[in-house]
Amino acid sequence: MSILSDALMEITPRPDIIFVEGKGSWLTDTNGAKYLDFSQGWAVNSLGHSHDEIVRALSDQAARVINTGPAFYNAPMLELATLITKHSCFDEVFFANSGAEANEGAIKLARKWGAKHKHGAHEIITMHNGFHGRTLATMSASGKPNWETLYEPKVPGFPKVPINNLSAIESLITDRTVAVMLEPIQGEAGVILAEKEYLQGLRRLTEDKETLLIVDEVQSGAGRTGDLFSYEFYGIEPDIMTLGKGLGSGVPISALCAKRRFCAFEHGDQGGTYNGNPLVSAAACAVLRVLLKPGFLQSVRDAGDYLQHKLSQLIRTFGAGHTRGRGLLVALILDEPVAQIIVEQCLKNGLILNAPKPNIIRFTPSLITDKKEIDQMADILEGVMKMTFNSQ
Questions:
Q1: What is this structure's pTM?
Q2: Cα–Cα dist 306/298, whole Å
Q3: Which residue in 37, 216, 227, 239 is the catalytic one?
């Protein structure tokens, strides 16, 4: 094991487990042990592991053509763009490979629009504790405290405010401001939700100030919250939206979506070697066709309600804290900083979870998880919590 791992650059601690197979909510390692996956690659595998329709789409497309190059149209790319625009408030889409790349594109698009239409306005107001990716610009736009001195000098032009504080944004808007950018749900920060009145007020404010509103739905989009896109829940129409993670259900694809009047790129301004290639576009088309099936998004909302119900039962049992979230993007907030201990013990008991903060456990199961699997998860978690809190 160590000989194999020595060839990999060390960027994160990993357990001594090698996964070789996955199906639905389950992963299997080299020893044949099975794990119930309620992280799904940090909300990436929206339809679980190796969903039949994703596998079929990839297989069929690979047999036709894998990559035509970004200088040409291909059929899945066009179908995917049409699906997104038909079912959203946006007119045009640019495809990329990761959420960070889509957010980088949103930053560039806003600044290009500001250069052309707002006398060079370039500042983008973002949120404390926000997370927009790991490129230099998206790290600069993010509000993670432990990134403040990393990779200096940062890209300038990203003043930050607390989420759900409209007056703080209003006080920062100047003639240099081109946009406000935020996640409707701050996933990496521990599933912190933007309030409905706040986001509706922010939409009115940005319109009054002729400032763009950018929503980063890399984690909260593509059905994760029980709506196709999170902005629908808030009853607003953003100017720009980014998608990623669940859009490809494990296949690397992301999207930058915008209203036509803000699409300011000129030839040569934006691109990418693999962007919108037929293989990944075919997979994303399959994902959206599943999400758009009658009743599917309601099933996500129902599963999310049941998940929070089961977690609330655990909270009452252990007096442990509270929950927050929407759909199948849920956090358990503990009263003590034992989240990582619980996550590690759950893994030893065959359950995969994620701890974005010392006192927060995040649940991002597949969107097709059912009550039986939620019950199985809760049983394992209850046993681990009992052991953890009894040993305190």
A1: 0.95
A2: 12
A3: 216
